[in-house]
Design a protein that fits this description.
Blueprint lengths: L7 E3 L7 E3 L2 H29 L5 E3 L2 E9 L18 E6 L7 H15 L3 E9 L2 H4 L18 H4 L25 E2 L5 H15 L9 E5 L2 H15 L6 E6 L3 E3 L17 E6 L5 E5 L4 H11 L6 E4 L2 E4 L9 E10 L17 H15 L3 H4 L3 E9 L13 H8 L1 E5 L2 H11 L3 E9 L9 H27 L3 H4 L14
Parallel strand pairs: 1-3, 5-7, 8-12, 8-13, 13-18, 14-18, 15-16, 16-17
Antiparallel strand pairs: 2-6, 4-5, 4-6, 9-10, 9-11, 11-12, 14-17, 15-18
């Protein structure tokens, strides 16, 4: 005879799904449902911490969701790569942090309503919300490690489940929701929540500071120049930039304000030159190596940036190159290995014309060189990314150097191909502009005495080029920037 008490499940009463033909009202209801769910879990969790958890009781709240049903193959504007579904059916996506994603959700829902001329439905989903993510915005609540509390956490609340937190949608592995609905967006709510938590950890800045245009670099020198550039822009009321955020969420609007050094630097220090519309620039110092590059882009991708670019240092592979020359990547040799399971190496990672043109124009604008003269300081070609920092010590006849020569590569680093490949995988427009800091195959190694003058003269100019390219992309219509080149046969309607 079973003597165990039956577990009672308590959930907030959130009503039945509602139909909407107005994107703003749909997002407002998502915000209401999300607040109800997180408030319920925060309150019950605080009570359990102070008074103990009731026996045989589980507290559960659900993520809100958006749902679309269409029964027609009605044609939409074929020039658009997003904002519509490709065939009749039921489509859904779970939603988290609708305040953070308000503009994005309003835009994407509005396109669905316009293109399909049917209502969208908003209501509670069937996906439980982990308590860790529900209480993340309440700094007064800390979730104890398993076994450290007075009760067994997972007996009372839902906890993160990595078995259902994955990249099946973006990797094209046939994801469907429990009721058979097809995905409406590239990430589920729990996958987004996981990355938002990781971003806080790795960058020491809140996700809501991130801007729509992200620069990655692999040297601290760029951070110093970025802060100087930001202060200059804050001094100019016509620049459109409103504030600068440093690691540790230190935000300044006064260009002369002091920024205290954080007690501990995060793994990937991150800085944000903000605009009111989110169209500013974020700089992430990912450090050296493809693993860091993958980690950063894995998590930033859930914020759906409009573009990300790598602006770092590289080894020049041609004797005709000079220290300080620029390399604009037109192709990538992927020997970084960290993405091989998610994006096989036989998948081409193409250059994107919109990004390439923006970068080339930015180089010309900053250097005041054009046409054939621009070739004096900039090469285009294949950039190789290796996972071995000391690749040049291998056998030059049969090892990496031979493959580099066969590939026609003009430069090598450890991050660019990873960032481009993850941009391709996550449908985030990407590009690479590197600066030659050494030529190991030709006797010019990166030594302290040689590096100092190079860093002083080139970093500022390189960073300005990256920012100018982003500002050009910011003025480009989204439907042009987010082109069909990054979309597969069966795509989500949301960017």
């Amino acid at each position: 005879m079973n003597t165990h008490p039956i577990t009672r499940v308590h959930s907030p009463d959130q009503g039945e799904p509602l139909a909407f033909t107005d994107a703003g009202k749909a997002v407002a209801h998502l915000q209401t449902l999300y607040t109800q769910a997180t408030s319920f879990l925060c309150e019950r969790f605080s009570q359990a911490l102070t008074s103990g958890a009731p026996e045989a009781t589980r507290y559960r709240a659900f993520y809100p969701e958006i749902r679309l049903r269409t029964s027609t193959f009605a044609a939409v504007d074929s020039r658009l790569s997003f904002g519509h579904v490709s065939e009749p059916g039921t489509y859904a996506t779970t939603i988290t942090c609708p305040d953070l994603f308000e503009n994005y959700l309003t835009q994407q829902i509005g396109l669905l309503l316009k293109n399909h001329k049917v209502s969208v439905w908003v209501g509670p989903s069937m996906t439980p919300m982990p308590v860790h993510f529900a209480v993340a915005s309440d700094k007064s609540i800390t979730v104890p490690q398993e076994g450290a509390g007075a009760f067994t956490l997972r007996d009372v609340f839902d906890v993160p489940d990595l078995a259902t937190t994955n990249d099946d949608i973006v990797n094209g592995l046939g994801f469907t929701y429990e009721d058979g609905a097809q995905p409406l967006a590239p990430f589920t709510a729990q996958r987004i929540d996981y990355s938002l938590a990781r971003l806080n950890h790795y960058t020491a800045t809140d996700p809501h500071h991130f801007q729509n245009h992200v620069l990655f670099t692999n040297y601290q020198f760029y951070v110093d120049e970025f802060e100087a550039y930001a202060r200059a822009k804050l001094s100019d009321p016509a620049s459109g930039y409103t504030s600068f955020v440093a690691t540790g969420n230190i935000e300044i609007t006064d260009p002369k304000a002091l920024i205290p050094a954080p007690p501990k630097m995060p793994q990937m220090p991150t800085y944000h030159l903000k605009r009111a519309d989110g169209g500013g620039v974020t700089l992430v110092n990912i450090g050296v190596g493809p693993s860091n590059a993958k980690t950063a882009t894995d998590h930033i991708a859930v914020l759906r940036p409009h573009a990300w670019l790598m602006v770092g240092h590289c080894a020049g592979l041609r004797n005709s190159q000079r220290l300080g020359d620029f390399v604009l990547a037109h192709a990538y040799l992927r020997e970084d290995k960290v993405l091989d399971d998610d994006l096989p190496i036989w998948v081409p990672v193409p250059a994107l014309a919109e990004i390439q043109i923006a970068l080339e124009h930015a180089v010309a604008g900053v250097t005041k060189l054009e046409g054939f003269e621009l070739k004096r300081i900039m090469r285009t070609g294949t950039v190789a990314s290796f996972d071995n920092r000391n690749w040049e010590l291998r056998d030059h006849q049969t090892g990496p150097v031979q493959r580099l020569s066969q590939s026609r590569a003009v430069a090598l680093d450890m991050e660019s191909a990873t960032i481009a490949a993850n941009g391709f995988r996550f449908r985030v427009p990407y590009g690479t502009l590197l600066c030659v800091s050494d030529k190991p195959l030709h006797g010019e190694l990166k030594l302290p005495g040689m590096a100092s003058d190079f860093y002083k003269d080139q970093v500022s100019r390189h960073l300005q080029i990256g920012i100018r390219a982003m500002e050009h992309l910011r003025d480009m219509p989204l439907e042009r920037l987010h082109s069909r080149k990054l979309r597969s046969f069966q795509e989500t309607a949301f960017l």
